[in-house]
Amino acid sequence: MMLRHIETRMLRWLVCGRLGPVWMWKVLLLFIAIGFAGQLLGVIFNKSSVQPAAHSIFSSPEAQEPSLGSCRPHTHIMFLKTHKTASSTVLNMLYRFGEERNLSFALPLGYQLGYPLSFNAHRVKGYRGPRVVEFHIMGNHMRFNKTEVGKVMPADTFYFSIIRDPVALAESSFAYYKGVAPAFQKAKGLGDFADDPMKYYDARLHNNHYARNLLWFDFGLNHNANFSIALAQRGVMLIRQAFQLILVSEYFDQSMILLRHALCWPLDAVVSFSLNARQQKPSGMSGSWVGNIAVAAAGIGVKGGPSQAKTVPNLSLTDQQREKLRQWNALDWHLYRVFNQTFWKKIDKFGHARMEKEVALLRTRREELARVCLRDGGRPIEAYRIRDKNIRPFQSGLVKILGYELQQGLDNATKMACLRMIRPEIQYKDLLDAKQFPRPPAAQARAGQHRQSLLVAAEGSFLRQDLSRTGSRLLGGQTRGRTAEDHTSSVV
Question: In this structure, which of 175, 215, 257, 312 has its CB flanked by the most CB atoms within 10 Å?
């Protein structure tokens, strides 16, 4: 603008007959040339600088489809994180959804909400009384207590959980907790334990809850009670009253479609990579990495068995031993059968053709994101091969826990979204804790040193539990349709 003003004044001066010396003409022509060139370059620059927003795979239409209509997403959610049921993968989805929307989490003081003790509201960090503070999402390991949870979570909270065939659960539990559950420690293998559980099991010993009716225990019920139809039906009734949806691990993808519709969430919110999976022998695996790691994680019928890099437990079972495990875990078996039937009734109502279509979209999206986000073709790898310790899964027990490495060269937005999908549970909890309860750098350093002293195992196999406000210590946790063979996908 200033340049144009000078040009105008000089032209007026010349028009009025004040021609002046020749050098003035040269200056005038120079200014005119500079002005013209500046305008021309400005137009070119502006055109070239207005670029469309960088396309991210996470902002594509496929991330939202298929449409759920005009419903509003649920943001008050309670997930009962049961053991060895793909619950770490589900918790990752909740962490991602909440972090992306700046929601608040009902986080534990340590890494679990007082487990294996019955949940108490004062185990939640930042809790100051019934519904004084709004918490949106609760999902860390706990032994369920509806009354205490109700003090923390709003009245409109959506409650859901996930279950698994007790035989498959026993295989995974034996592999993870053989080093901490006395009943498993004494047995040579899972088949040996199945042949005569009472030879090894003592209900009074700490951590033996991992060895019998573990689902029943996590739901807050008496897992050592003698089975009766009346008792089992009452337990199922209590669970139905507390939870709007019970997912099934063996049908993980179908579960995610039902969950997505129940919560009114976009498709990408329920797309996941398997987390906290244990290693199997590569030679026994075929087909896509998604299906393989799902089955490996669940411990269901994979040829070749677990890796021999560590002295892994013997998980082989005869059909007779499988039946004995169902009898030993009779309360869990009843719970599984009932809610498995309920699950398939929901799918009947949803529509099988519609379910197949949406599951196909989910799996296609998972493969697509794996190609974008993950190295090694999206295959899970051993922890020691992961260079970034912030995404290296915690190693526990006698099995190797697998993780992922990010693809290189990702733009910042895509890298952050991919990182959320593979961040292990313990590191993710620490990150959310630091965001929700920021501390000075010195305090953060002390907290980091303290975490190194905690014996924290993935899926909560053991903890040096910090004391609650009441000063109580861990006391051992002992408190006075279709079947898995039809599974299409499972992730742990």
Answer: 215
Helix (H, G, I), strand (E, B) or coil at 19: coil
Summary count for the chain: helices (H), strands (E): 17, 6
Tokens of 58: 């996470």
- Report the first-to-last Cα separation within the chain, whole angstroms: 66
Query: What is the predicted pLDDT for the residue at 479?
Result: 34
Q: Lay out the sheet containing 158-163: strands in order across.
A: 137-138, 77-80, 158-163, 245-248
| Euclidean distance between CA atoms 317 and 167, whole angstroms | 10
Look at the chain and count its residues. Answer: 492
What pLDDT sits at residue 62?
55
Measure the CA–CA gap between 293 and 289, rounded to whole angstroms.
6
Question: What is the spatial distance between Cα 119 and Cα 144, in angstroms, rounded to a whole number?
Answer: 6
Assign 472 to helix, strand or coil: coil
Both structure tokens of 470: 């009441």
d(CA 393, CA 455): 14
Please state the separation of Cα 299 from the chain's center in Å: 19
* Omega cis (within 30) before 440: no
- In contact, 273 and 488? CB cutoff 8 Å: no
Q: Are 358 and 389 in contact (CB under 8 A)?
A: no
Cβ–Cβ < 8 Å for 151, 130: yes
Strand duo 381-382 + 137-138: pairing: unpaired
Q: Can you tell me which residue has the tokens 């937005």? A: 413
For the chain (492 residues), the mean pLDDT of every run of 10, in chain order, is 52 49 60 58 39 50 67 96 95 96 97 97 96 95 98 98 98 92 96 97 97 98 98 98 98 98 96 73 38 37 37 88 98 98 98 98 94 81 70 68 82 92 91 93 60 45 36 33 38 38
Return d(Cα 44, Cα 444) in angstroms, integer.
50
Q: Please report where in the chains the tokens 């909740």 appear, as a residue.
A: 94
Note the Cα 303 to chain centre separation in Å: 27
Instruction: Say if residues 56 and 413 touch (Cβ distance below 8 Å).
Output: yes
Residue 389 burial (CB < 10 Å; 0-12/13-18/19+)?
A: exposed
d(CA 488, CA 292): 11
Q: Determine the Cα–Cα distance for residues 182 and 180; give it in Å rounded to an integer.
A: 6
Planar angle of CA 254, 260, 264, nearest 5 degrees: 155
Given this model, what pLDDT does residue 400 score? 73
Q: Find the angle CA(341)-CA(343)-CA(347) to the nearest 5 degrees.
A: 115
Q: What is the rounded distance in angstroms from the CA atom of residue 472 to the CA atom of residue 114?
A: 10
The reported pLDDT for the residue numbered 199 is: 97
Q: Which helix (H) or strand (E) covers residue 161, if one does?
A: strand 158-163
Burial of 482: CB neighbours in 10 Å, binned 0-12, 13-18, 19+: middle
Alpha-carbon gap, residue 434 to 419, rounded angstroms: 17
314 token code pair? 């013997």
State the pTM of this model.
0.76
